[in-house]
Amino acid sequence: MRSLRALLSLFGLGIGLLATVVLALFSSAPSRSDYAFVVGRSTPTVLSFTETPLVFVVGVPILCALVGWVTALVLTRRGWAIGRAERV
Fold first, then answer.
1. Least C-beta-crowded within 10 Å: which of 10, 17, 23, 85?
2. Is the dihedral of CA 78, 79, 82, 86 positive or negative?
């Protein structure tokens, strides 16, 4: 029972980390651009940083891990378990 909870919690954490990376990279949130003028170049170099709140970056994976743990808790109460199948 404990292994199912751990497995689904880790799976949820992994999905949460993946979702955070995808949402942070492909978000349409306003971004800050710093212009740097380099000697010898006629065009400015643009450095763009997406500002993602720390609560979002930490909260989404933890929330997904918690959902995975709750799902495993419900499944174990209904009789699910990770183990070898019993032969009849």
1. 85
2. negative
Measured CA angle at 59 (ends 55, 62), to 5 deg: 155
59: left (phi over 0), alpha (psi -120 to 50) or beta: alpha
**How many C-beta atoms surround the C-beta of residue 65 within 10 A?**
20
pLDDT digits (tens, 9 = 90+) for 25-35: 776 656 666 66
pLDDT, tens digit, 9 for 90 and up, residues 66-79: 999 999 999 888 88
Cβ count within 10 A of residue 38 = 9
Helix, strand, coil percent values for the chain (each to nearest 5) = 55, 15, 30
